[in-house]
Fold these 2 entries.
Entry 1:
Amino acid sequence: MKAWIINDIGQSPVLQRVDLNEVKDSEVVLSVMASAINHRDIWITKGLYPDIKTGIVLGSDACGTYDGKTYIINPGLDWGSDQAVQSRDFNVLGMPINGTFAEQIVINKKYLYPKPLHLNAEEAAALPLAGVTAYRALMIKTKPQKGEKVLVSGIGGGVALFAMQFAIACGCEVFVTSSSDQKLEKALQLGAISGYNYSNPDWAKQLMADHGGVDIVIDGACGNGFNNLVKICNPGARIAFYGGSAGKIDGLNPQLIFWRQITISGTTMGSDQDFFDMLAFINKHKIVPVIDEVIDFENISKGFNKMASGSQFGKIVFKH
Ligand SMILES: NC(=O)c1ccc[n+]([C@@H]2O[C@H](COP(=O)([O-])OP(=O)(O)OC[C@H]3O[C@@H](n4cnc5c(N)ncnc54)[C@H](OP(=O)(O)O)[C@@H]3O)[C@@H](O)[C@H]2O)c1
């Protein structure tokens, strides 16, 4: 079968013929109909991910068929039984184990979940990694209540958009930030109340003047911009961050955090239970992932370049 392989650390993946993994007990062969890229795939091709192995098929997300039925894959493998934190064996499909940018994939049946009926294969393929990350960050780590104010940063991102959609479905008032005014405009069309361009150094002051602060922050960037996220927090606010695209945080003000009793949580993907609950939530609220573009499997490099440039709004999906 054909698959996109990483042959060298720091190199783009190449399309080549590979053998399918041996099918062991409890495993099945899923024929992939669609897959989707995550920022993780970019970090791997840049050599900026721990324990990269060469000769591996990239890709964590997929929708495909097995035995006449259509499924999506939970890419978080071996989470373990502790809902609070993943086990030492936890790993993510698509490094170090062969992933979904392939015509077929061998996967343990327990990671297959029925495709939501209201989604087509491309929409369903956009869900798994970003969806479960956003679900755990928002629902488990910050426990939103109806009417609370939620700020989601970097709204062009795949995880960020799911967090926004989930928070709106919870009845929260959602505010967003982006480096792009066009992306802010799109987010308003999807139900955000206000958008702020984080390239403007005064955006946080403006949000405070407009809305007086937020109860929840969902962030995937950190960096020095994190200080503004703390400044806009109401007393008792919860911040969950799932990524560090902008690097380390300098100058964090401890007084602000302890005096306002702010909770800051790190979060990573989600447990099998979180994945199950995320799908139930998607089905209940008929949430449709925001897709930036569907690209042919043969042209995967176009998707990698687009995500690396940061120009996308939502998930980039590959049609196999
Ligand atoms: N811990 C986990 O389990 C987990 C899971 C998924 C992702 N992640 C990490 O989370 C990050 C985002 O992942 P993704 O797949 O959603 O990526 P993505 O779809 O490529 O989104 C990246 C977005 O980050 C935003 N961004 C970049 N710099 C920013 C800054 N300084 N301040 C605020 N926003 C900024 C941009 O938003 P605008 O274009 O709107 O400016 C960009 O669209 C990556 O670092 C990824 O590795 C971690």
Entry 2:
Amino acid sequence: MRRESKRAKTRRTLLTGAGFGLAAGVLVTFVAARTVIERQEEELAAENAQLKQANEELALQAVKVDAVTDSAELLAGDSDGWCLALVNEGHPLDTEYTPAELTEIDSERSVDSRIAESLQNMLDDGAASGLSMYVASAYRSYDKQRDVFNSTMQDWISRGYTPLNAYDETKKSVAVPGASEHATGLAVDIISSEYEELDDRQGDTDEQKWLMEHCWEYGFILRYPEEKADITGIIYEPWHYRYVGEEAAKEITEQGVTLEEYILGQ
Ligand SMILES: [Zn+2]
């Protein structure tokens, strides 16, 4: 048997050591590389999430611009923010606009079909809570709105108001034709069966208290809150609910703002 020379043995040991060292080194490098890749993936995911959020914010901004500049087109389209159209005296709705599809709530009242299910769920849940309420007014065409406005104005004139004062007085409770949300098919007047007057006290009924607390869960907001008449241009209407979609309804409610403030960023 040939004895391994001392030199050869040392050389073999060194080579083995180097081999292990190399393997360990590769392993360490591999683990380190994997950690780096994982971190990069995490960073990428975070960046993606940020980009996605930025994109969503941009899309919402675009919708908000459309909500003001071309509400009829926004309403007629199928973008996510179709239900955010801002309609008020300063931002009238195209008088030609009619919802593409209406769904009957009862024999006399209809809403834009896209909100029918949410509205029905809200009414059903309210009824299941022992409350009694009904939709007194829903979609109103431009022509119908003009009739309502004119007859209310006539009432004021017959009470002795000048036409100009009657016009101003009417405007406080009835939207000027073209400025009514009822023409969108997304607004409803809901009143308590226990108290059917359309005045401030309507807001004290159990039905309105329930609606004000829960309507956002169904995508609705109380459109003309108390103390906000200077912003909305409409007196406190504790019966007028407007569909804006669940996400916006939640944000608007949490922020305690009106649709004007939400859209225009006032
Ligand atoms: Zn109304």
